[in-house]
Amino acid sequence: MIHYSTPRCVEEFDILNEVGKGTYGQVFKAIDKRTQQYVALKRVLLKNEKEGFPVTAVREIKILKRLQHENVVRMLDVVFAKPTDADKHRGSVYMVFEYMDHDLSGVLAYRSQRTADGGTGLSSGNLRPDEVKCIFLQVLRGLDYCHKHNV
């Protein structure tokens, strides 16, 4: 027997702020009201709504649903916003991800800022060799996992 769960609405999340914007969507930091967990909500851009849901988003969702690895950000759910005439973002689809405080560029930017402020004493925000090795190993482990799963 197939069990269908009730689709969740984006209204079940408190959106705190925008944390990023790109070609394929807009990302917000939010709190899941049900679990009190911080999450990242990625609003899927629907550029040509006449043509339906973007195939790139469908592909991304299918891939992310099957990936479970400590070095790959986890997609938790897909939620929607109910359409209304008053709000142009209603009817949108959102992918719910675990929230990460920083990506690699954020870590590097933070290091550069601390160095400029005199916080670490390291020249030009460079990472120490042991930090580079640790980060590189994490990237390689995540990449290896993705490749083994045909991503």
TrEMBL record:
Positions annotated to bind ATP: K42
Keyword Kinase: yes
Key words of the record: ATP-binding, Kinase, Nucleotide-binding, Serine/threonine-protein kinase, Transferase
Domain of life: Eukaryota
Domain Protein kinase: 13-151
The protein's assembly and partners: May form a complex composed of at least the catalytic subunit CRK2 and a cyclin.
Protein name from the UniProt record: Cyclin-dependent kinase 2 homolog
Organism: Perkinsus olseni (Perkinsus atlanticus)
Taxonomy of the source species: Eukaryota, Sar, Alveolata, Perkinsozoa, Perkinsea
